[in-house]
Amino acid sequence: MLSKFRAFSFLQIADPKVPARYFLLQCTASISSLKVVWRKDPRLDQAIENDKKWRLCARVVREVLNEPGQVIALRYLEKRRERLRLPVKIQTFLAQNPGLFDTYMDRIKPKSDLVTFLRPSDRLNRFLEEEKLIYEKNEALIVAKLCKLLMMAKDRVVSAEKLVEVKREFGFPNDFLVTLVSKYPEYFRLYGTPGEGKSFLQLVSWNKEFAKSVIEKRAEEESNLTGIRFTPHFMWKLPPGFFIKKEMREWIRDWLELPYISPYEDVSHLDPASREMEKRMVGVFHELLSLSIYKRVPVPILGKFCEEYRFSKAFPNMFTRHSGLFYMSLKGGIQTAMLREAYKGEELVDRDLLLEIKDKFVLLLDEGWQQRAEQLRVKREMLQKDMQLMAAKNKELNCNEQHFDL
């Protein structure tokens, strides 16, 4: 049966209204006409949409914080709008999100005209101090995540530049390569030439406790709670309204019955084209998404690690072939792999401890938005009072004119 299903077209867009770019994901069946149809999951798409506003604010904040002295001329930031994917002018953004920055006048060069500059507000600086404390409090978690990423990789080595690119996906602080590597020499060794794509982070020692996947830990917890031995297994659950053909259901059933292979296990003896290797790769993707902050990672970011984790070029098909485990969101024109079991509807229920940083940032934004709403309310009330006074004066003038005519 394996040969029959290996060359499937695993994604077919069923809705003719779906934009043409989605058809880039479609494969052509070469052996079997059997297909798994991609279906939109509005709730999981909404989970991505819900984060859109604060992520935009975070991009602007990072842009300012990365400047020398953490200050920037407003007109310079305005020129970067396209790169920041900011749909409004900077001044409009500042009005919509008060409390992030303070503005002041200064000269770019001596004797030049005064221009407007931005710097972090006191409120934002307090948040940045809280962020540092949260990172310090969860340092052990961050070290474990970094070790796990190296333990799953080929030769226990990952490009340092690539790790920096994905630091926000996994919750690593900006300076993690400087602070953690030097602080934990028993785990990490950094070598190569920084800044030229030839710098690498290597695992120095293997920690057995880190070599347990989320799947394996869950089986242990179930066994301890019930007293019955549970073997590690995937939680496969299709979303409402999603149907697959009988032949595919049988293939999935047989595949799920295969023994679970840990992403930390040596699989050099396995045939790369075997079902066992596919099960191991699904385990790797499951573990990577589980280690991420939001239990979802854009597919292009995962694609950067094809060499380190031995992904094939067709690895995105894995997320559609195993739709009971993953969802491939196309929100915003970007393919994003999501872990289904981590969400209940549009809410993330499998919460990472480092999400406290995001919660505090959203709270900071909420304070600014409430401040703006209050200012707009007062402004509307004042305008309404002015209009009432004008109406009263006009009425009085009309009465006086009528009395004069009499």
TrEMBL record:
Residues 40-369 form the PORR domain. It comes from the Eukaryota. Keywords: Coiled coil. Pfam families: PORR (PF11955). Signal peptide: none annotated. Residues 373-400 form a coiled coil. InterPro entries: PORR_domain, PORR_fam. GO terms for molecular function: RNA binding. This is PORR domain-containing protein.
